[in-house]
Amino acid sequence: MNRILTILFLTVTTTFLGSCHKYLDIVPKGKIIPEKTNDYRLLLDQTSANGKSNGFVNSFGNDVLMSDDIMVTPFSVNFYDAASQNVLSFAEHIYQDFESDPDWDALYNQIYVSNLVINQVMDSKEGTETEKKQLLSEAKVHRAFAFLALVNLYAKPYNATTASSDPGVPLRLGIDFEESLQRASVQDVYDLIIKDINDAITGLPDTAPQTNLNFRPVKSAAYVLLARTYLFMNKINEAFQNADASLQLYKKLIDYNTLPASTLIPGMLQFPMGLQNSEESLYKTTNSSASLFYADSTLIHLYDIQHDLRVPTLYFNDALFGLGFGYISSEWSGRTPVKGMSVPEALLIRAECYARNGKTTEAMADVNAIRQKRFKTGFDYVLSATDPGDALKKVKEERRRELAFRGARWFDIRRYNAFDNDNITVTHILNGQTYSLAPNSARTVLPIARKYITLNPEITQNPR
């Protein structure tokens, strides 16, 4: 059955990323077509990269390099290839004209396999109707997650006034390799994301039966994904409703005081099953690549370093190679940054919605629910706010602390600048040169790799 996974994912890579027509007549020898319901389960359960695909766990990583959470040091610069350095310096082009974009590849790879399941699983053999509907629902959540990432990497932030005309990303909904790759509008992409998640929710179990299966979408995760989607659209009431719906189903938070010491790095704590598989994680997906990330000093200064267990004992370490605070990624400790939905994200979305709706007390209660589990026992963790504006500021800071390097900050910067006029400029120093990205600059939208446009001219480029 592994041949199904390998061949199908390989077909995705060679077909979508090349010309729509160039590879149509190529059918790999020995190709096996999934027929049984369990074949589709195996397709959706592929989680790790095997050299031919990214599975359903590796997702996207350039958002981290675009954000102000990262600092490049003389040591860490050696871990970034030319393309990554182009992202860090907000260059006109990221990839050479012959190079692929790993984020684009991974996400569209997952969309294709999701489409395969969506289009075929209900006609598969041997499985029950309930099993088929669950697989259909899981595939729709996977597809929604991928499209939400794509439209926020390669298109402008959602703007209700212009979304219907702003170019989004190609909407691949089938498995026909002759589909047009013309970019759909931002509005059309968001409409599909919302429809997919709403269609999926009734067919999903409430929560994962065990944490090592959290790569399978469940209802509590789908609600957070829908809340995230509405938050990116600045639809606060809808975001609140869905974050709250998730928390009504599941709200486990881990007390960091109970975590054991790391067996790899002295002075640090570790999750026994890894951060990706913690009981707080509702949907397991991670960075598209592993690098050594150093946290910017502005991020570190947001923490109470003496009492907050997130730093330096869990998220960061101040003794790594003697080069200052650094976020330790999978190359060093198995902590690949988690990009999927979680209980803390649900609480932070609900807190932000409370603050934006003038409910200061409720907003701070959700923030403090997280902080209570993060501070050393016996030390004051409680934050208070004088008014809704102050509450929103504190929610934003807590969100940055809690979700550091987990797929939130770059998208938050874009929406804070677009909706709140926060006027955040991102500055990176790289190889002795300073690069700044102004709020709402055209370069807050990543360029589409030239390789894809050359092979598929209907894909228009983003202005730079």
Automatic annotation (TrEMBL):
Classification via InterPro entries:
SusD-like_N, SusD_RagB_dom
Q: What is its main location?
A: membrane
Offer one Pfam family short name for this entry.
Answer: SusD_RagB
UniProt key word Signal: yes
Domain RagB/SusD as annotated: residue spans: 345-463
Where found in the cell? Cell outer membrane
Q: Name one GO cellular component term.
A: cell outer membrane
Keywords of the record, alphabetical order, are: Cell outer membrane, Membrane, Signal
Query: Which protein, by its recorded name, is this?
Result: RagB/SusD family nutrient uptake outer membrane protein
Segments forming domain SusD-like N-terminal: 23-231
| UniProt KW Signal keyword | yes
